[in-house]
Write a structure and sequence with these properties.
The complex is a heterodimer of chains A (about 350) and B (about 260). Chain A has about 350 residues and is mainly α. In chain A, about 80% of the residues lie in helices and about 0% in strands. In chain B, the strands form three sheets. Chain B has a six-stranded mixed β-sheet with strand order 6-7-8-3-9-10, sandwiched between helices. Chain B has a four-stranded antiparallel β-sheet with strand order 2-1-4-5, covered by helices on one side. In chain B, strands 11-12 form a two-stranded antiparallel ribbon. The longest helix of chain B has 14 residues. The chains are: A mainly alpha (about 350), B alpha/beta (about 260). Chains A and B meet through helix 11 and helix 12 of A and helix 2 and strand 6 of B.
Chain lengths: ~350, ~260
């Protein structure tokens, strides 16, 4: 009787992670193909494979149309790659924020980093000139905006009893409201309708602007930022236990918190500067991973990256096929998933006292 | 005797409130030392200064004769381990994962747990009688089991100095005694905060009594635990019975105020 009971409560055997990894890698491969295949312009799987073969290995297929080549290679592939990197980066950033704040409700969107970055981008648009044309400059502005917002939220939310979770979330909401108002202010003083449309599209999140020459920096930022966090994964386990416990286990809490704010701002800023505000990925994905594999950040980070990337990529496919040929902002879809998820978690927390 | 922990003239204030005032104390090697005092007397703040959960005052806390500020957090965690009451966390780990965190001071953050770490963790779990549950999730445990896991984590940390901040406070009598026996049986250097005075009298070699942030008196339990002290510091009327082991036993009678 006792052994049966114990086996039931035994969780997460090691092979779960192995099987999940294999499934995810297979999914990753097929998703890249699927993500290229699906869209408003009809393509066949054969065409997609032919174009990729041609570009990668120089195999010439005469029957390929120029338009097909351009859709596959110039539009959809960069877009798919950006979705994978951005989704992965946001998910890992969310997981890190949750550990640092010891609050599973935290994520770059909820804690205002995304609104900070988008307000900065809107400001860049209004400034016009070199600011709205240079991708690097815009990314730098987005990074600064995200970091400023996070620091503000952190200093407001951490006053008083250290690490009070709901206080931090409330501070995030308050700062977000202010920054969203700032973005709207920039929209209303924008000099022309072109700028207005640009900023508006931005605030709803879209990967439509992904081209080879725009995705380099955000992809690199998301990948390298995630890698830094993964290398520190053990430290996030300690920090998730609370500041004081983490200190007693030998962690320099201040240093890790600073590092996290910089890296999360870097990832969020880079993603926002090319894809706009894409919310809730950093919130949903780490939860799903923890339910599947437990809380050890040495697993949570890499699996969040894989699942986050896949999630955003398929959300983006949905965004461009739902009412094709018109395209919807992908931020709408992530919010549609994220909002109910948030409510479900609150309900669960009420009911079981844990998430 | 060699001093493992020494505090010299430590004062600490937050805004207008003096939390600690001119605290000096010494914990010798392998001594079991208790801190007692009413709520808000500064016991926990004092411990937090030793493991630097509070910003340390310069040249006030010494570890093995060296200022605590000259230690990195990692080095300090190899010397000191802290047992506190378990606090609820939204993050759920398995028991083994919890105990393996105790090995962190010895590993770089990108390093995996070694076989040696796992063996140390398993041994620590065996010591507290929890080795059969290593893969269970921490959040499903009872309060006493959780506390035993945290003790195993402290053991896995292999530190010579144990700081205890009432880790037994919410446990039933059996576990209170069991945990104190386990800790006392380790023969390590212990500085512990107690609320339950009879537990303190039974296990401590030496007591420091705190009131309003000052050390009021200190000495062996038999010499300082008196009806007068209990009345003055804790506001209770009590009788003291000496036990056959020469340790005082307190029988509370009423609140004397």
């Amino acid at each position: 009787m006792k052994t049966v009971q114990m086996r039931k409560q035994t969780k997460r055997p090691v092979w779960t992670a192995g099987i999940l990894l294999a499934v995810l890698l297979a999914l990753f491969f097929f998703s890249v193909l699927g993500g290229i295949l699906l869209g408003s312009a009809e393509l066949t799987a054969q065409t997609v494979l032919d174009v990729i073969r041609m570009k990668l290995f120089g195999v010439q297929e005469l029957q390929l149309q120029r338009s097909a080549i351009s859709i596959v290679w110039e539009l959809r592939l960069p877009r798919v790659l950006l979705a994978l990197a951005a989704g992965g980066g946001l998910a890992v950033a969310g997981a890190a924020m949750q550990a640092v704040t010891q609050n599973v409700m935290a994520d770059p969107y909820i804690l205002g980093a995304s609104s900070g970055a988008s307000a900065a981008v809107a400001f860049a648009f209004v400034l016009g000139g070199v600011f709205s044309r240079s991708g690097a400059l815009m990314s730098a502005m987005a990074f600064a905006g995200a970091m400023l917002a996070l620091l503000l939220v952190y200093s407001v939310g951490m006053v008083g009893s250290a690490g009070s979770g709901s206080r931090l979330v409330l501070a995030g909401m308050a700062i977000s409201v202010i920054l969203t108002a700032a973005t709207q202010f920039f929209i209303s003083i924008a000099p022309d309708t072109y700028t207005v449309r640009n900023i508006t599209a931005w605030t709803m999140g879209s990967l439509g602007s992904a081209r080879w020459n725009t995705i380099g920096f955000p992809c690199l930022a998301a990948l390298s930022g995630s890698l830094v966090l993964m290398l520190m994964a053990r430290a996030y386990n300690l920090l998730s236990q609370g500041d004081e416990t983490a200190v007693s286990l030998g962690l320099d809490v201040k240093v890790l918190k600073r590092l996290t704010i910089v890296v999360v701002s870097f990832i969020t800023g880079a993603v926002v500067s090319v894809g706009g505000v894409i919310g809730f990925i950093g919130f949903i994905i780490p939860h799903v991973v923890r339910i599947l594999l437990g809380s050890d950040h040495r697993r949570v980070f890499p699996f969040s990256f894989l699942i986050g990337g896949l999630f955003l990529m398929w959300m983006d496919v949905l965004a461009r096929t739902a009412i094709a040929p018109k395209e919807l902002p992908v931020g709408i879809f992530t919010a549609f998933c994220g909002g109910p998820f948030f409510i479900w978690l609150l309900y669960r927390k009420n009911r079981y006292g844990k998430m | 005797m060699e001093n493992k922990v020494e505090i010299r003239d430590l004062s600490y204030r937050v805004l207008d409130t003096q939390i600690l005032q001119d605290i000096s104390l010494r914990v010798g090697k392998n001594q079991f030392i208790g801190l007692i005092g009413p709520n808000g007397s500064g016991k926990t703040s004092l411990l937090k200064h030793i493991y630097r959960a509070l910003p340390p005052q310069k040249r006030a806390v010494f570890l093995n004769g060296r200022e605590i500020e000259s230690y990195s957090y990692r080095e300090a965690a190899q010397q000191i381990t802290v047992m506190r009451q378990e606090n609820a966390s939204d993050f759920d780990y398995t028991i083994l994962e919890m105990v393996l965190m105790g090995r962190s001071p010895y590993r770089k953050y990108y390093e995996r747990d070694t076989e040696e770490d796992k063996e140390i963790a398993q041994n620590a779990l065996r010591f507290v009688g929890m080795e059969a549950m290593a893969e269970r999730s921490f959040s499903t445990l009872s309060g006493g089991e959780k506390q035993r896991v945290l003790i195993a984590r402290s053991l896995a940390q292999e530190a010579d100095i144990l700081l205890l901040d009432e880790p037994t406070n919410h446990l039933d009598v059996h576990y209170q005694w069991l945990l104190m026996e386990i800790i006392s049986g380790l023969g390590k250097t212990v500085l512990s905060v107690f609320h339950e005075l009879n537990l303190a009298c039974r296990f401590c070699d030496y007591l420091y009594v705190l009131k309003e942030g000052r050390i009021l008196t200190h000495g062996r339990p038999a010499s300082i635990v008196t009806p007068e002290m209990l009345s003055e510091v804790f506001g209770v009327r009590a009788e003291i019975i000496p036990t056959d082991k020469g340790r005082p036993y307190i029988i509370y009678q009423s609140s004397s105020t």
